[in-house]
Design a protein that fits this description.
Number of strands: 10
Radius of gyration: 20 Å
């Protein structure tokens, strides 16, 4: 996505009432974008942007980004996704190389050096996904020492072992045969679902090509497209007059799901207290489906 197009999307979104933004693609890596810093600087300077956050595997970042971090005011959370607990498990889980592992070590070390600044206003979270049998107390690899250093500096830490999400039925058990990791059920989960998934209300995504997908979490192939900013304005897409969006919601109300949703083990129904539909402006306050429609119809 070009920087001009990105800036236009931010302008439209803030005019519509959005103040917080997630920059993580469904798949891929934010630091692949060579213009990322220009886009972040635009958000930092934009009066309508309250905060932004994103995930990264932190293999492809640069010293320029660490310099940028010294002045950020609106970055809320940077979450570093770490796969494997040492070089061997990193290679097994990611299919990556020794060089990529070394880049991760170098970049994470630089991030933690920057994180020690008493003036920082952002938070770093570290998430580790690795094989079953992992033992934190005896963890003494390069990455383990850095993660423990991060924890001592106040980073968040989440460790998930032995299980992997099926990504809407995309991941097959055969792909995990050589890993000590099990897959969440890849069966049809329709019978376990009731009503719309909350994600299609509060976590839609503008894809790199300008199309808007209703799910920012698991629809890697973009099968839930509800509009295209190359040809439409944002208010036309987030509207009760948009049949693509309204049909998706109505179908899920009737417990009728597209394939990616049928096989997804990440479904979060709106009919339980948490998670819920989030309103545009007041984070963490529950709203009803009727209120959501009224907001779209304003």
């Amino acid at each position: 996505m070009s920087t001009d197009f990105f800036c236009n999307v931010i302008d439209q979104a803030t005019a519509f009432g959005h103040t917080s933004f997630g920059l993580t693609p469904i798949t891929g890596e934010v630091f692949v974008d060579r213009d990322l810093l220009s886009k972040l600087e635009y958000m930092e300077d934009h009066s309508g942007v309250g905060l932004y956050r994103f995930y990264s595997n932190y293999i492809q970042t640069s010293e320029d980004f660490h310099d940028f971090l010294s002045d950020v005011k609106k970055l809320h959370t940077l979450t570093v996704s770490i796969y494997g607990h040492d070089e061997e498990s990193f290679k097994k889980v990611t299919g990556g190389s020794q060089k990529q592992y070394e880049h991760l070590i170098q970049n994470l070390s630089g991030l933690l050096d920057t994180y020690q600044s008493p003036d920082r206003q952002y938070r770093v979270n570290l998430t580790v996904r690795t094989e079953a049998g992992f033992d934190y107390d005896s963890w003494d690899s390069d990455i383990g020492r850095l993660v423990k250093t991060g924890k001592s500096l106040g980073t968040g830490l989440s460790i998930m072992t032995g299980q992997y999400d099926n990504w809407g039925g995309l991941v097959d058990k055969k792909e995990l045969e050589d890993l000590n990791i099990t897959l969440k059920d890849d069966i049809d989960h329709t019978r376990d679902k009731s009503g719309p998934c909350s994600i299609i209300f509060y976590k839609t995504i503008v894809m790199a090509d300008g199309r808007i997908n209703a799910c920012a979490c698991r629809d890697t192939d973009g099968t839930l497209i509800i509009g295209d900013l190359n040809h439409q304005r944002l208010e036309e897409i987030y509207s009760v007059n948009n049949p693509h969006y309204m049909d998706l919601i109505e179908n899920q109300i009737q417990n009728t799901y597209d394939n990616v949703c049928r096989y997804c083990s990440h479904h979060k129904t709106i009919y339980v207290p948490e998670p819920v539909i989030y309103p545009i402006k007041r984070k963490n306050k529950q709203i009803s489906l009727e209120e959501f429609y009224r907001h779209l119809n304003r």
